[in-house]
């Protein structure tokens, strides 16, 4: 079976990667101070996970991330639908949104700090700002993916506007919206971590920043490993659901 | 093998003796004019550019008849059907179904089957068929029963739980027919429903449709650009001219029923086909 082979393939590649990571510093191919062996990093992660501070940091960052996400996603999707469905708004706002999208969001971070300080809502606001444009852009294509013939069927059945939105637009847009969710989360997480790294006294991003400056590579890599697993886990979970409704797209 | 029993055949009204032009009253009209179209004109107006699509369309269809509409591409067949479905408001003229005017979609009076089956890919065949009832807020048990009935009618009861992408083109179109029939409307409108299918499937689906029609006893208005298909299936064929579409004639197909593929080789079939072809070409 194809998926089984793929899983085996990934597993094998992962194992080779980790084996190299373990061997390279131990055999002196790489300076162990720059890249400690994998097992040391895992041990460091284990030690960290035993502390309350670690979980406080993780909790805070996840709370910021989720707060920004649950705001940015519906707001971006709604704005996306409204802009796409209105000819006037399409004409006026679409180019603007495309322009803003192409600017790296990180250069605005100092402005957010100036206005909002360095506490919780600054990070959430920056997370939303990093996310909302990609959600809008994906929603444009999601609306376009709603098929005219399916809408016509709904009309021929005398469906109300609400029924059309709930039972045709929404399910129709779901595959593309899931993609939006997945990609948006990457942007969102990046925004939050960046904000924490740049100006914060707490959170995962801050911890990574502090360890980097203090040359605590083992802890740093342990956190990187943790964040990677988290991000990949989320991404793959959504991709799994996406694959389930792949046949909705024609 | 003839699919229609003798009993059913004898219930069917005799076909009109001779063909006639746009007569408001057809000989078979006693069963009630299911569909009445009066003085229909339609002009599209897009960005100041006007296109007259239909001109002086008037006809009636009596209950239980199978009427095809043929005409060259772009002559307004789809536009006409959209109007009969209440999906498009004619510039001028009236449409009545069951004696009451039709001004907006009403799936309890008119079921529609489109060229592409247009099923919702996220719903199973059963749920696609249930969908019209679901929109009306019909009770779940009733919904299920009606959908099952409709699926059985089109011979797909075994595929109730399949998703559209697991079905063949012909099967999808049968689900779409079941969806059109699930509210038991007196009229079923079909816009080139088999045009996207391969030749073999198209012929099978034609026979299948006739079987469903015999059983469900609906009035069918069937748009096609295939003359043979129209003659093979219909009691009458409405012939439209090129744009703007006008009714050139209404041809009664006096071939006996049940129809069979061999009839296509009969001289009468060729005669009818020739006659219609000449009208369209002129
Ligand atoms: N929505 C529309 N807007 C403008 N013109 C249209 C529209 N739909 C159809 N037409 C025009 O009306 C004419 C009839 O089209 P249609 O009803 O689709 O014909 P048919 O189904 O017989 O091919 C064509 O010239 C077509 O270009
Ligand atoms: Mg057409």
From TrEMBL, chain A:
Transmembrane segments: 6-23, 61-83, 95-120, 126-146, 166-195, 215-234
Domain ABC transmembrane type-1: residue ranges: 58-236
Gene3D superfamilies: MetI-like
PROSITE patterns assigned: ABC_TM1
Membrane topology: Multi-pass membrane protein
Localization in the cell: Cell membrane
UniProtKB keywords: Cell membrane, Membrane, Transmembrane, Transmembrane helix, Transport
Family recorded in the similarity comment: Belongs to the binding-protein-dependent transport system permease family.
Protein name: NitT/TauT family transport system permease protein
Native source species: Azospirillum picis
TrEMBL record, chain B:
InterPro entries to which the protein is assigned, alphabetical: AAA+_ATPase (IPR003593), ABC_transporter-like_ATP-bd (IPR003439), ABC_transporter-like_CS (IPR017871), ABC_transporter_ATP-bind (IPR050166), P-loop_NTPase (IPR027417)
Gene Ontology molecular function: ATP binding
The keyword ATP-binding is annotated on this UniProt entry: yes
Domain named ABC transporter: residues: 35-267
UniProt keywords, alphabetically: ATP-binding, Nucleotide-binding, Transport
Keyword Nucleotide-binding among UniProt keywords: yes
Family stated for the protein in its record: Belongs to the ABC transporter superfamily.
Name by which UniProt lists this protein: NitT/TauT family transport system ATP-binding protein
Lineage: Bacteria, Pseudomonadati, Pseudomonadota, Alphaproteobacteria, Rhodospirillales
């Amino acid at each position: 079976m194809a998926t089984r082979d793929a899983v085996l393939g990934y597993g094998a590649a992962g194992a080779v990667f980790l084996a190299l990571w373990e061997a390279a510093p131990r055999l002196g191919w790489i300076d162990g101070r720059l890249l400690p062996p994998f097992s040391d990093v895992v041990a460091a992660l284990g030690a960290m996970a035993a502390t309350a501070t670690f979980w406080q940091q993780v909790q805070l960052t996840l709370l910021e991330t989720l707060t920004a996400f649950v705001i940015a996603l519906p707001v971006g999707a709604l704005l996306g639908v409204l802009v796409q469905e209105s000819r006037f708004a399409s004409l006026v706002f679409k180019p603007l949104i495309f322009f803003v999208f192409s600017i790296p969001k990180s250069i605005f971070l100092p402005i957010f700090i100036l206005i909002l300080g360095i506490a919780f809502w600054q990070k959430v606001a920056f997370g939303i700002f990093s996310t909302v444009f990609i959600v809008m852009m994906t929603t444009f294509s999601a609306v376009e993916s709603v098929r005219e013939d399916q809408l016509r069927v709904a009309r021929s059945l005398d469906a109300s506007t609400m029924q059309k939105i709930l039972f045709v637009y929404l399910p129709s847009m779901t595959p593309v919206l899931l993609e939006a969710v997945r990609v948006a989360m990457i942007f969102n997480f990046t925004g939050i971590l960046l904000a924490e790294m740049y100006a914060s006294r707490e959170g995962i991003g801050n911890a990574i920043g502090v360890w980097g400056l203090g040359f605590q590579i083992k802890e740093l890599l342990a956190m990187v490993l943790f964040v990677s697993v988290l991000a990949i886990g989320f991404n793959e979970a959504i991709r799994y659901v996406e694959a389930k409704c792949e046949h909705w797209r024609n | 093998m003839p699919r229609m029993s003798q009993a059913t055949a004898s219930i069917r009204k005799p076909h009109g003796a001779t063909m006639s032009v746009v007569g408001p009253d057809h000989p078979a009209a006693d069963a009630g004019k299911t569909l009445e179209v009066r003085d229909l004109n339609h002009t599209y107006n897009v960005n100041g550019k006007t296109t007259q699509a239909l001109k002086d369309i008037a006809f009636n269809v009596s209950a239980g008849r199978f009427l095809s509409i043929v005409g060259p591409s772009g002559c307004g067949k789809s536009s006409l059907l959209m109007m009969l479905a209440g999906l498009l408001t004619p510039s001028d003229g009236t449409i009545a179904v069951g004696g009451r005017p039709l001004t907006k979609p009403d799936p309890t009076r008119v079921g529609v089957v489109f060229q592409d089956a247009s099923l919702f890919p996220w719903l199973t065949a059963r749920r696609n068929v249930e969908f019209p009832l679901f929109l009306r807020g019909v009770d779940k048990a009733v919904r299920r029963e009606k959908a099952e009935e409709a699926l059985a009618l089109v011979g797909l009861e075994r595929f109730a739980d399949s998703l559209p992408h697991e079905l063949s083109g012909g099967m999808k179109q049968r689900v779409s027919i079941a969806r059109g029939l699930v509210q038991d409307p007196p009229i079923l409108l079909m816009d080139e429903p088999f045009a996207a299918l391969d030749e073999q499937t198209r012929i099978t689906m034609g026979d299948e449709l006739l079987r469903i029609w015999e059983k469900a006893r609906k009035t069918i208005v069937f748009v096609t650009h295939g003359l043979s298909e129209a003659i093979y299936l219909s009691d009458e064929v409405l012939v439209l001219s090129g744009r703007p579409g006008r009714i050139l004639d209404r041809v009664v197909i006096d071939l006996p029923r049940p129809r069979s593929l061999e009839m296509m080789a009969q001289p009468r079939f060729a005669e009818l086909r020739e006659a219609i072809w000449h009208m369209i070409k002129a």
